[in-house]
Write a structure and sequence with these properties.
CATH topology: D-Maltodextrin-Binding Protein, domain 2
CATH class: Alpha Beta
CATH superfamily: Bacterial extracellular solute-binding protein, family 7
Structural class: alpha/beta
Shape: globular
Order of helices and strands: HHEHEHEHEHHEEHEHEHEHHEHH
Number of domains: 1
Radius of gyration: 21 Å
Strand content: 15-25%
Helix content: 40-55%
Length: 381
Amino acid sequence: MKGKDSANNIVLLERHIRKGEWYMKKFLAVVLTIAMGAVLLAGCGSSSGSTTASGNSAGSAGSTASSNSASTASSGSVITIRYGSADAEDAAVVQGLYEFKSYVESESNGTIKVEPYINGVLGGDRELCEALQLGTVDMTIVMGGILANYDQAFNIFGLPYLWNSKDAAYNAVDGDFGDAMKTRSDSIGFKLLGYGFGGTYEVGAVNKNIKSKSDLNGFKIRVPEIDIDLAYFQALGATPTPVSFSETYTALQQKVVDGLELSVELMYCSQYFDAIDSITMTNHYQCIFPILMSPSCWNKLSADQQKIVTDGIAKQVAKNREVSKNVEEEDLQKFKDMGKTVNELSDADMKEFTTVGESIQDQYKDIVGEDLLSMAKKYNK
């Protein structure tokens, strides 16, 4: 028992350290955001400097970009891209964001700077999209379904059980389906550059074990501000409650909601392991995060800079997927080590969830378009 107690003490110590770090980072980020408020209003700003950036770029394509951007640097012009995310620093989507920052700043020879604003300091996904329209941020990465506020076809990203695996989701957004959604994004005023991945969504609960569909009756579950999430959990018998991601932890603590839907990785990175007691592996959808830039910011970039940004997005997506690859199993073990419960659904119980999910797909097929739905689902195996 001593060994087990020691292991639990280590887990508790790590949890408290991480929680303290998270609050400190959030506090510092808020202070920084207030201090930068006037600058944020500039939108994809450029500034002049008296010195020329220096450094070497990797790869033959990067060498060409560096020579071109060096001439830009010599003119003293530096473009700053403000990049917002509602997620925590350790999240795979944010690790991808930092990979983008590193690549773009290096390959542009310092003529492009990327300023990350993470942990929801600029708001949740909906607020970030609005900020992108207003020009107070230049890039963001958000849940795909949130874009249904601008075009109903984007509800497709929120459809439960649309893809049956990560690989199916990856192949769809890397293929003709992803290209079709990029075209649709242009028409609503967002430049869709690529797709991040937020993991496979499960249900986390406070003081309750969800083992079947019936256990969700009257269960107040936090959902994003996406109509399709409301429809799905209502059909399951739950009481879905829209709450901004940045306010979800408080909502759980104050029992405004009884639980949430989120990937295991995001539950861990966002400190929700502290607030919940069980996780049920519903696997109800693969969460795709479109990476968006304001067209005005994109148009301020030279052709060479646009190439650097596009290549940077590829680096971001690769890093995001790399981090996501094995993290779920590791994080679930951490949750169990805290003495908490992971529920696996029986085949019969899972069938109840998938049947409801398929009914939501039928309900939304005319809204998202049957052709688009077929295009997305053909990647399932």
